[in-house]
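queue> pop job 88
queue> type: inverse folding (structure -> sequence)
queue> payload:
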């Protein structure tokens, strides 16, 4: 009967290796999780309504407002970029640069593949800038989903109405004095409203959207 014997020193080395923090693995996991978040937030922002619409109706997706989705996408994009730079240097810059030069030299011999890659790049770049189909179709589909979030009767009466104060709404939109507007709000249980408060601030304090606040005061 044969027995396999593992040297004790090798077991100890493996144990120490497992206990040591592996920065390469940490960076790889970080890149993977950042990529996943970027992919999800990218899809959500692709179909989300414009900012003015989202703020007007208090738009949310899985209980997160548009500002939160934008912040997640931006911060994880920067995290991905930072981790990618660290990943590049963690595998030894000289080895990496040598590898790139070798592949670049090899790529020159692949002239058809190089030309095809450059052509694809040019088509996507110019097609996007000049709004050519089917690239513009991708943007049109996103625009369709973005516009579908707001019904005709939910449109703001003026740009950035949610940022207007009671005094500004009185002066620019409604034939009512600030006191009359505040009185309408108080009749619905919304108290302690000031003339210099915006519709968005009033909505946040009362748990309503700027649209709902405007409907109350414009009735």
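queue> result:
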């Amino acid at each position: 009967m044969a027995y396999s014997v593992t040297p004790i020193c090798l077991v100890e080395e493996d144990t120490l290796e497992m206990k040591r923090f592996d920065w390469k693995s940490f960076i790889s996991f970080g890149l993977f999780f950042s990529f996943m978040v970027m992919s999800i937030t990218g899809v959500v922002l692709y179909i989300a309504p414009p900012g003015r619409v989202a703020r007007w109706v208090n738009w949310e997706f899985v209980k997160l407002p548009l500002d939160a989705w934008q912040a997640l996408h931006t911060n994880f994009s920067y995290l991905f970029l930072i981790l990618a730079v660290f990943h590049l240097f963690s595998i030894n810059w000289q080895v990496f640069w040598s590898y790139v030069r070798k592949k670049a030299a090899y790529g020159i011999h692949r002239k058809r593949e190089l030309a095809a890659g450059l052509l694809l790049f040019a088509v996507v770049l110019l097609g996007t800038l000049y709004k050519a189909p089917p690239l513009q179709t991708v943007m049109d589909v996103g625009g369709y989903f973005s516009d579908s979030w707001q019904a005709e009767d939910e449109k703001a009466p003026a740009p950035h109405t949610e940022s207007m104060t009671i005094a500004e709404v009185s002066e620019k939109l409604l034939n009512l004095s600030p006191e009359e507007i505040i009185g309408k709000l108080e009749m619905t249980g919304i108290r302690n409203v000031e003339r210099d408060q915006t519709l968005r601030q009033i909505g946040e304090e009362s748990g309503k959207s700027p649209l709902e606040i405007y409907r109350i005061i414009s009735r």
